[in-house]
Design brief:
Blueprint: H1 6-17, H2 25-33, H3 37-49, E1 53-60, E2 68-75, H4 81-89, E3 94-100, E4 106-112, H5 118-129, E5 133-137, E6 141-145, E7 149-150, E8 155-156, H6 182-191, H7 203-209, H8 213-225, E9 229-236, E10 245-251, H9 258-266, E11 271-276, E12 287-293, H10 296-310, E13 315-326
Antiparallel strand pairs: 1-9, 2-4, 2-5, 3-4, 3-13, 6-11, 7-8, 10-12, 10-13, 11-12
Helix pairs in contact: 2-3
Length: 336
Amino acid sequence: MTSMDLVDRRLLNLLQSSFPLVAEPFQALGGQLGISEEEVMLRTATLKRKNVIRQISAIFDTRRLGYKTSLVAARYPTTALTRAAHDINRHPGVSHNYARNGYFNLWFTLAVPPDQSLEATVERLAQETGAEAVRILPTVRFFKIGVNFDMVEEKGAAYDYYSPDGYGDGQAPWSNGETLTPLEIHVVRELQEDLPLRPQPFQAIAERLDVSQEELFACARSFQERGIMRRYSAVLHHRRAGFRANGMGVWRVPPERSEEVGRIMAGHPAVSHCYERPTFSDWPYSHFTMIHATSKDGCEQIAREISDQTGINDYRVLYSYREYKKTRVRYFVEGA
């Protein structure tokens, strides 16, 4: 973080939260920052080269596109863990894959299209990679997703967030699955790709789709209104951005308090994700909160705050000690 000046940090805040869907977005960003379009693109290119910015593209709602998705916990012998993780990463529906401390030492997210079985896919991956144990942990309640880091204040800033189950302020629940036209499927395929750094980056996309830029932006707005696209923004490499600790808080919540506690957890600005998931005899933790901080002590402090706010004292914070994959799910592509 020490290599970034205040303009870089302000730029990162804008790229995460309000990337403009206009013909000349970098000029628009420059107007907000008081710098030229050229400087915005130069700074963005530098931050990408340093891997602070992973990608600038659309963030789609997996379930609204009809895909089935789940978090998967697996256990491998230590000597087999890395090979297994790389083999699992070859599946295009795997977007996140981390080694974490604890009995289940590999955690990954998997999405499959409507015509495929998620359970069968997990079983095949587990058999092919020699998993000793595996648990499928789909979402029961989706309380929050709101990944946003305040790069100026150096803290989590997930105040405004998305909840397809309707737990956000003023949000109504979305139904799963949305019928897309052939053109809309092509738009999804285009907008999910990393945006090129040029003055009019959407022009080539519109030309490939044989539509005007205004028609492209209208389609993107329709996606947002229908809950198909959560936003168009940058994804940061949180460690390179200074948020070196990544803790997954798992909480044992009484069933009768599930919704109440989930809402409280989702309201914490340092929590980027909050879900309720099924429990098992060997896994009693129902609520999951992703916490990012500049240090492990920071994550622990946030977990204590959540514990104090909810009264839930039976919890663990599982830390990732190796990131095998973090990307966005690629939809409507071969093999996905």
